[in-house]
Amino acid sequence: MYAKCGSVNDAKSVFALMNERDSVSWNSLISALDQNGCFEDTVTSFSQMRRSGLIPSNFTLISTLSSCASLGWTWLGQQIHGEGIKLGLDLDVSVSNALLALYAEVGCLAQCEKVFSLMPEYDQVSWNSIIGAFSDSEALVSEAVKYFLGMMRAGWSLNRVTFINILAAVSLLSFQRFNHQIHALALKYNLADDIAIENALLACYGKCGEMDECERIFSRMSERRDEVSWNAMISGYIHNEYLFKAMDMVWYMLQRGQKLDSFTFATVLSACASVATLERGMEVHACGIRAHLQSDVVVGSALIDMYSKCGRVDYASRFFQNMPVRNVYSWNSMISGFARHGHGEDALNLFRQMKLSGQPPDHVTFVGVLSACSHVGLVEEGFMHFKAMQEEFGLAPRTEHYSCMVDLLGRAGELSKIEDFVNKMPMEPNILIWRTVLGACCRANGRNSELGQRAAHMLFEMEPQNAVNYVLLSNMFASGGKWDEMAKARRAMRQAAVKKDAGCSWVTMKDGVHVFVSGDKSHPEKDLIYEKLAELNRKMRDAGYVPQTSFALYDLEVENKEELLSYHSEKIAVAFVLTRKSERPIRIMKNLRVCGDCHSAFKYISRIAGRIIVLRDSNRFHHFEDGACSCRDYW
After folding, report:
1. Cβ(627)–Cβ(606) below 8 Å
2. Cα separations (Å) of 216 from 170, 200, 202, 212, 222?
3. Which of 92, 121, 270, 338 would you call most buried, defined as having the most Cβ atoms within 10 angstroms of its Cβ?
């Protein structure tokens, strides 16, 4: 009685005062503790029951296994599984279901499959458990569909849990035809109006790119919508790159008086960060303040990430300093933000503060720390932190940490040490490692091309259809003046029938986003832009600028190379912004790495125009002011 009324302490008191206890007494206590979230007490009570000499029943095992699942205690759960086998209780359908739930929760899917295959009989919970276990695994999600079809062939009735689980699986697989079939089944079972299934359908259609279906379902839901419904729509718009629709949905929520939760804000802020729309991000921040969520640690961490990715690391830092509560994500976002902007010393100082505050770092923290060392050339300090990961914090370095170290050596020009470092790695180098090696050789103007060619060979074996690998190899040969080898790399790319992404730059103005590609003549203001570009080129040359033709990666005459360089997308973008009257900093985003010539030109332009230029490329931020860059030419 006390347990069912939520008074677990009273239940424990009654139990403690009992002179005699039987199996029912122990089962009542263990069940009470599990149902009221006292998971460690549940396990302790199970051990005490065993020591008292009483034999546990199926009810005892079910509650104890449930607590092990909640705690993520795989090892203890396996021991109880063994106990169940000895007692012959493992064949009980409810015990087997508890085992399925345990192994699914801790990610032991092979054990799930084994338990399920050994069950003499199943019930609806058994099928739902095995489908749910595999629907959470991206790698084995197709197994969820296999078990769903098995459940239907066996003649079992489907319920809301079945539909929620299978829709989660279908959304990961992006099976457009299958999600319509599941939707039809939900209608057949008269469950399509269940809000949990409607929300699952919204998430599924959104992941599959069918936002029209999402909008139809959402409009029919009317007053049944909850926070999950709104979040599913916003996430769907963002997943399909309809950022403005996602923002409109947020405004619509506010107008209807709908409560916005931290997940909504974090999702929208993440989208703003991904496309670097500072103005939209600031609007979301303002909404967060009106919704009294500015002190929420999840929203705060997302704000730090958004501001740093949109070029305002100063705003990110100010917000971080004022946060009432910080978690590991807050620290990681700020450390990574400083690293991305080339403020290596600030990132490392913050890491020291993090340790002093008592917040233990995780693997992501060290990616930020090692990146900070890489961007400012702190080779010795980088190796010190890499060593401290395991020795001081017990964190085994992962592939991404080894990639950071290869990048650190490459940026410092230590190509001779890269090969030895890669050969001594405890795991086989993957695509990320080899691409970092090839990028390092490319930056070194073709020095140690043997290592670069080895890295390219490994990449072609692992990822033959990725154009980036061919482009990097081609650029490595071109930067070293090996035009014949470059031509061979380009031919290999054509033979593999792969296409590289076109380099583009974009700026956000009051009248929208303006995108430019190299040599762009499609913009309606092209005459003004090229007039401004010619003016900038004259003024730069008068100031001492000399085009760095080594970055024109084609075998052309010098004059042609200079012309090619002058029409790079980021130069067209900055010329476009300078045709408008403004004193604000110029913010340019680029999908590829900025070339050395454009980097040099932007230093001159910042002095000539008297403007701050913030350029985000695929690697980091560059802040140009009065003829200097924040990276101090180390990038």
Report:
1. yes
2. 19, 14, 10, 6, 11
3. 338
Residue with tokens 């209807």: 256
Helices (H), 358-448: 363-376, 379-393, 399-411, 415-423, 431-443
Q: How far is CA 486 from CA 398, 431, 467, 473, in A?
A: 33, 22, 14, 8
Bridge partners (DSSP) of residue 629 are 624
More confident residue, 552 or 308: 308
pLDDT in tens, 74-88: 889 899 999 899 988
| CB count in 10 Å sphere of residue 584 | 9
- pTM for the predicted model, two decimal places: 0.69
8 Å CB contact between 617 and 604: no
415-423 helix and 449-462 helix, angle to the nearest 10 degrees? 40
Alpha-carbon span 359 to 351, nearest angstrom: 10
Ordered alpha helix ranges (H), 543-633: 558-566, 569-578, 596-609
Quick one: tokens of 525?
């203001």
**423: which 2 tokens?**
């050969």
Q: Is the pLDDT of residue 548 over 50?
A: yes
Q: Please tell me the distance from the alpha carbon of residue 414 to that of residue 417, in angstroms, as a whole number.
A: 6
Q: Are 11 and 29 in contact (CB under 8 A)?
A: yes
pLDDT digits (tens, 9 = 90+) for 494-524: 666 666 667 788 888 887 788 888 887 888 8
Closest CA to 370 of 360, 355, 385: 385
Question: In this structure, are residues 253 and 260 in contact, taking their beta carbons and an 8 Å threshold?
Answer: yes
Nearest to 513 by CA among 568, 421, 577: 577
For the stretch 17-62, pLDDT in tens is: 998 888 899 989 999 898 888 899 999 998 998 888 888 888 999 9
User: Cα-flanking dihedrals φ and ψ of residue 369, to 5°?
Assistant: -65, -45
DSSP type of residue 55: P
Q: Which two tokens stand for residue 68?
A: 């092990």
